[in-house]
Amino acid sequence: MKKLLIILLVTNFLYSCKKEQDPFLISKQNIGFLTDSTQVKDLKTVFPNDSIHRYIGGDEFTGSINDINILQNTGELLLVLTPTQALDSSATINNVRVIDSRFKTETGLNAVSTFKDIKDNYQISNIQNTLKNIVISLDNENFYLTIDKKELPSEMRYDMNLKIEEIHIPDNAKIKYFMIDWN
Question: What is the rounded CA–CA span in Å between residue 48 and residue 52?
């Protein structure tokens, strides 16, 4: 009887120590319950309480990619998923655009963070100057962030040949897009 009681106590202790997965945590291989190996056909099990909206394009100018929108049951957009293959239910997810601010990294970086949050918590490897945005790549991370050039000083907004450095970006510059690349 004593052995049975000890076994039950140890089992209960081990079960209670099991850490539950945060449904909004962004890490290298997953965003909550969505993983880099989740197939399109399994999205309903990953997001059972949310709405999944797929635009099925034809021959128009959309190219071969058909984004999948994940919406909360209230209609708010949470994530935009881009599969590796259009119209293939066995395809995995290639890119994720994080919309909802509840999705965040362990350091708290989310879709409404600022440039200060980025530089305080991550090592920036590259800043690309594009027509309307700057794209920030980070060391040892599979996500990148864009900031609208409207956040930059006016003299830096229109020159695409200008090399933009960290010191040129204001601390309060807001993230425009938070993108995860599982390519």
Answer: 9
